């Protein structure tokens, strides 16, 4: 009984640490600007989902033409760079200069599982880029004896 | 939560429209568009010690982030920040309905997005509705809005519905099929077309659709903060089916 209680406490601490780390990660993400003044690039919004056999990544890329998107993938990352059809002018922070004009989207994304980049497929509809990357170690079906 | 009023509309029973940051920022985009097209004036703002210490500058003028605009027989409430905590959501919903009671509104009309996985394949998003009390149901049925019959609603609009239900205030929630995590001006345009029909507004969505791509870029930061806030309050509940089969 005492052993069980200790294991429960350990699990609870583990959960709490995980939650705190997630919060820290989220706060760090939120406190990072979504643009880079030096490279004149914008960070796009993105989503990552996992299915049994694939990692599915999407990027919101408005004002972008399909032919101006470059995608590079490794086992652990996806990197995109997309030129905007025209410069995107931002009103507001004058302390950064007379005119703030961005020319592209850029983002490197770390993937939650190892993938086979050679077999990845991509589509671009309505300004949303979807990349499907097959997982390197796929799930195995286990037979019940 | 404190309401600081600057002026009041001189009308008997206005409508109160809520366009707050939620799925696809549909409500926020719709609200901005109504405010700009109707050339509404700021009439009040909400303040609280729980809010992040933020003011917003527009044309050099400092403004509080959660504001009320008004013109003719319409009030519109919108926010330029994500509503970051459950406590704040409860408090804001209560204050919004307090304001509705004080203004003797005809109905509280909230607008937002309904996360739809195949949104990219949908040209013209459909709008679904939820109504409270007879007047709300009448408004919804006269506009031929498809009712949302089963499911969970999570977040600020759930709490506004709850407050309206408890205080017996006619209320309608309109939700357009929307991207889950990306700003969706197309969904906002669908909402505005329904509001035109439902409340006799005359909002032109041509400009909104023309500027769709620029709006999506401009709203990235607010969308990212809203996504984080929605994840924290278990927004994913909305993808689940309620367990009670007969109630």
What does this structure look like?
The complex is a heterodimer of chains A (145) and B (247). With 145 residues, chain A is of the alpha+beta class. Chain A folds into two domains: 32 residues; 97 residues, Sandwich (Immunoglobulin-like). Chain A has one helix and nine strands. In chain A, the strands form two sheets. A five-stranded mixed beta sheet of chain A has the order 1-2-7-6-5, with no helix packed on it. A four-stranded antiparallel beta sheet of chain A has the order 3-4-9-8, with no helix packed on it. The longest helix of chain A has 29 residues. Chain A is flat, with a radius of gyration of 21 Å. The model of chain A has no long low-confidence stretch (mean pLDDT 88). The longest helix of chain B is centred in the middle third of the chain and has 17 residues. The termini of chain B are far apart. Chain B has a nine-stranded mixed beta sheet, sandwiched between helices. In chain B, α2 crosses α4. In chain B, β6 and β7 form a beta hairpin. Chain B has a single domain, classed as 3-Layer(aba) Sandwich (Rossmann fold). The model of chain B has no long low-confidence stretch (mean pLDDT 92). Chain B is α/β, with parallel strands linked by helices and 247 residues long. At the A-B interface, α1 of A face α7 and α8 of B.
